[in-house]
From TrEMBL:
Organism in which the protein naturally occurs: Rhodocollybia butyracea
N-terminal signal peptide: 1-23
Similarity section: Belongs to the cytochrome b5 family. MAPR subfamily.
Protein name, UniProt field: Cytochrome b5-like heme/steroid binding domain-containing protein
Coiled coil (UniProt feature): none
Highest classification ranks of the organism: Eukaryota, Fungi, Dikarya, Basidiomycota, Agaricomycotina
Length: 165
């Protein structure tokens, strides 16, 4: 049976096929009107906002203390002069966390001696704990925690004396 290409239906179909083929063979090279912010048809895209970055900063006991997490904000703690951002461990260091006493503080002595006792924490207006009395096994213990924290959290600063900045 002969196909009547002169019928309006077939003509429309033929035009549509020709149009589709030319779109595939000669894709539009015109740039998009606005930069896409989401994945669309494989076009390369940019996220709407840059993710917040973590800056390596110098902290003192006094400037570290506000990062206690009680306000639902960032939680930082220091061990042997290295400041870690432990916000991701809010369950541990947040207000109801088992290790919340270390939040915003120099946790070196508590980590070394594996203790939550109040005297493990140096008051924030006092000079830094020099840790000179620690026993070798306690220093090893502290280093073990530093390794654990380095593998798990972001190092975001160093801790220096209050009057050093
Ligand atoms: C009754 C005694 C204790 C129990 C039952 C206990 C239990 C735990 C448990 C279950 C974890 C989570 C382990 C994981 O998921 O990787 C943990 C982590 C930890 N514990 Fe304890 N703990 C105790 C005592 C202490 C003490 C005395 C310290 C003092 C320094 C301490 C410091 C830590 C720290 C720093 C972490 C790591 C948290 C993190 O990864 O951010 N724990 N503990």
């Amino acid at each position: 049976m002969a196909i009547n290409i002169g019928s309006p239906c077939n003509t429309a179909l033929l035009l549509f096929i020709l149009y589709s083929v030319q779109k595939i063979v000669f894709p539009s090279a015109s740039p998009p009107k606005e930069i896409p912010h989401e994945f669309r048809n494989g076009y390369s895209w940019l996220p709407k906002y840059h993710q917040p970055t973590v800056l390596f900063k110098t902290y003192t006991p006094k400037t570290l203390e506000p990062f206690h997490g009680n306000d639902n904000g960032r939680i930082l703690l220091a061990i042997d002069g290295t400041v870690f951002d432990v916000t991701a461990g809010r369950n541990f260091y947040g207000p109801n966390g088992m290790y919340g006493n270390f939040a915003g503080r120099d946790a070196s002595r508590g980590m070394a001696k594996q203790s939550f006792d109040a005297e493990m924490l140096t008051p924030v207006d006092q000079p830094l704990d020099k840790l000179t009395d620690l026993q070798p096994d306690e220093i090893e213990n502290m280093k073990g925690w530093i390794e654990h924290f380095s593998n798990k959290y972001i190092i975001c600063g160093k801790l220096v004396e209050n009057d050093a900045v």
